[in-house]
């Protein structure tokens, strides 16, 4: 039989070794309290399309997504891969795509994040940024983050923008820089 001090030292070493083997210092223990569960969506849609017409029956907008989750308590929807198309009644359209989005029901505002691209479908000009919000009532898109506007070989950058899709105007914010490359004959 082993002496007690040696047995105690071996048991302590085994315990420390087991702790070192199984312990993950990067893990975080999270203790949930009752009622702290994240709200579950009331509605879940896959590959969806919403089409809106005005009182005269003219197409005004289309919103598509690969995945939509609606949370009625928060009156908002989480959207994966949203695609928004704005029509202003005179065959002029704008398209917007992004990785994710949130739609706030009461405000009728679409918040887009990740690889956001706003396109004037007639001129084929593209505006790229990381986040944008669109007022669906007013058809005005804004971004407070850096934007890059490209059309053909021309590139313009700025620290933000406001796009009025009804008036077909984009107003760039401060620090606007452009590179103009004329078309080759």
Verbal overview:
The radius of gyration is 27 Å and the shape is elongated. The chain has one domain (43-179): lipopolysaccharide transport protein A fold. With 185 residues, the chain is mainly beta. The model has no long low-confidence stretch (mean pLDDT 84). It is built from 1 helix and 14 strands; from the N terminus they run H-E-E-E-E-E-E-E-E-E-E-E-E-E-E. The N and C termini lie far apart (97 Å). The protein is 10% helix and 50% strand. Strands 2-3-6-7-5-4 form a 6-stranded antiparallel β-barrel. A hairpin with a 4-residue loop joins strand 8 and strand 9 (140-143).
Question: Fraction of residues in helices?
Answer: 10-25%
* Element-level helix/strand string: HEEEEEEEEEEEEEE
pLDDT averaged over residues: 84
CATH architecture: Sandwich
Query: Could you give the count of β-strands?
Result: 14
Instruction: State Rg.
Output: 27 Å
How far is the first residue's CA from the last residue's CA?
97 Å
Count of discrete alpha- or pi-helical segments spanning 4 or more residues: 1
Total discrete domains: 1
Shape: elongated
CATH superfamily: Lipopolysaccharide (LPS) transport protein A like domain
Low-confidence stretches: none
CATH topology-level fold name: lipopolysaccharide transport protein A fold
If strands are numbered along the chain, what order do they take across the biggest sheet? Answer: 2-3-6-7-5-4
Which sheet architecture does the biggest sheet show? 6 strands, antiparallel, barrel
Question: CATH class, anyone?
Answer: Mainly Beta
Strand content: over 45%
Give the helix/strand class. mainly beta
